Amino acid sequence: MSDCGICDIAESDKLKLFEDENLIIALAPRPAAPGHLMVFPKKHVTILEQVPDYIASWMLQLANKASMALFEGMNAEGTNILLQNGTAAGQSKPHCTLHIIPRRQGDAINTNWQPKQLDEEEMSTVELKLKEEAKNIGAFEEEPQKPIELEDKAAKIRGDEENYLIKQIERIP
Ligand SMILES: [Zn+2]
What we know:
With 173 residues, this protein is an alpha+beta fold. The protein is built from 4 helices and 5 strands. Strand 1 and strand 2 form a beta hairpin. The longest helix has 22 residues, at 150-171. The chain is globular, with a radius of gyration of 23 Å.
């Protein structure tokens, strides 16, 4: 057992539905609703900022697949895809986790907030601050090289070799 409940799930065989090199999809041990899923990095990282861009984007792709599984397998009528980034945002475990919560009309799960009305000055102050910060958005980390599909490549090489041999044989009078 580690100090992190999410790492414990990563290391055990329980609750896990899918895993690849970097990410895991698992059932939430204390779900907001039956079928509540979690997508998280295998490596212990606290917040999203510590997750490399290519893994972060894969997290969202897996969350989308997990969400589709909830529509299909749990007859969900909707899903919330939610990341609590920091304790102030309601994060209870120190491990970056994307939650996929199946929803139904009238299920009374509370993820809503009361919209605030900012006055014009407040809004333009916020806009100014964030416009400056937003200048760096779009400077993504370089993608790592795509994994080479060894089996397919091997089959292709074999195929090429066979073709080559056949051509050679055909040339033999
Ligand atoms: Zn952890």
